[in-house]
Amino acid sequence: METGERRFQVRLASERVGLSGEVDLLIVTNTEAVPVEFKHTEGPVAKNHRLQLGAYALLVEDALGLPVQRGFVCQLPAGRLWQVQCGTAERLQVAQLVRQVRHMLAGEARPAPTPVRARCRDCEFRRYCSDLE
Q: Which domains does the chain have, with CATH numbers?
């Protein structure tokens, strides 16, 4: 990657995409933008991390007009860095999830708890989940 400008805690919103979010770190060059997410987790890069970067790709492209072809997940405290592709498949999955969430909100429904409770141990939303004791 060529040298780029580092922008921390970049807030983005797009009516067209129907999302908003805050990218931990956005690296901006003349030819691309690369979102970087810092995660306090020990596990491997998961689907939710990939989809989060896919959502950021849509938001960044909408806001800056620069292509986003990849992003990174930096796992703390180990400091591991994982490159994640931000392609068409990820963008389509994000659009599908946005539709599903909007449908759930309109119906005032909550998602079912995960059947794999081991996931809850390392979940960043654990403290908000009413499904756990």
A: 5-128 (3.90.320.10)
